[in-house]
Amino acid sequence: MRAVTVKPGVANSLSLVEDQPEPEPEEGAVLVEALAVGICGTDHEIIAGEYGEAPAGADRLIIGHESLGRVLEDPTGTLQPGDLVAGIVRHPDPVPCPNCAVGEWDMCRNGQYTEHGIKALPGFARDRWRIEPQFAVRLDPALGRVGMLLEPTSVVAKAWDHIERIGHRAEWQPQTVLVTGAGPIGLLAALLATQRGLAVHVLDRATSGPKPELVAALGASYHTVPVTKLPFEPDVVVECTGAPTVVIDVMCQAAPTGIVCLAGVSSGGRSIDFDAGALNRALVLENNVVFGSVNANRRHWNMAAQALSRADQSWLESLLTRRLPVERYAEAYTAEKGDIKVVLEFGD
Ligand SMILES: [Zn+2]
């Protein structure tokens, strides 16, 4: 069968293997036929040789962590043949740490977790894959064209879950949300905000392309001004750019008792000048919270599956700006201007 692979640590080693062996039964009881994988920044980092780890004893890593497939067989009876599923990316560390021990592998304390298509577990960009039923998430059959959005949606479902848990430390009636960055994560964070009935503002640099329309279609406002020029103070910020200036500015712009969720990863190595004392003063005197959020556990994947099935399917489909068959993998994994989410499709 076919599999999209890299040699971790070696830049531009991306290749389509045509004679990949069938998945080993040890990989899980559920056999799944791949329909598609979504492509994200992590894949680009892995292809650039900056990230990624092959399974023990292997020199190549099958990539792909934003999965969508159809169940071929599940001898455990948990899933039925024909069910649409996505595979949970992260698996708990073997120790396990206190968080992994209770299924909160998204909060792993020791970093020894594994991840399909990223860290020591084979990914989903292959014709068939296997997974244990507790790591397979069943999707609404209506999500057959967009279900590969479940993984990025699980990441924002976790962010919102933690925002709400933090919010309920005291009386909390948020009204205004600012999302910075209108990539797939930002747009999905905005979708989940609108599903909560909040007034949603999205800020991005793009003045053309699909982003302004995608935001407007959610009933949200689109801004291209610097954060400090926004005419409001958000109760909640979901920061998805990782851009240092934006990160600092949203901390200062948040309303009293505001919550800032940092969901974008900075590359580091760039310094900016800012007044740390003034920031400290603003956070303390306004009871503000700034926290980081990454990955998702089973509960968040289930929340994400519900959020996607409640969403406008045509809006979700419009996030998928390019869909390419697996033979055109090289094109699919080359970023183009105007891309929001690129999808690699399996099947005939
Ligand atoms: Zn752990």
Protein model, in words:
By secondary structure, this protein is an alpha/beta fold. Helices cover 26% and strands 24% of the residues. It has ten helices and 19 strands. It has helices at 41-47, 98-101, 150-167, 184-195, 211-217, 244-253, 276-285, 298-310, 313-318, 329-332; strands at residues 3-6, 15-17, 30-39, 61-62, 66-73, 84-87, 90-91, 114-116, 120-121, 128-131, 136-139, 176-180, 199-203, 221-223, 236-239, 259-262, 289-292, 320-325, 341-345. Strands 3, 5, 6, 10, 11, 18 and 19 form a seven-stranded mixed sheet that branches. The longest helix is centred in the middle third of the chain and has 18 residues, at 150-167. The chain starts with a strand and ends with a strand. The mean pLDDT is 97. The structure holds zinc ion. Zinc ion (ZN) is lined by residues 92-93, 96-97, 99-100, 108-110, 113.
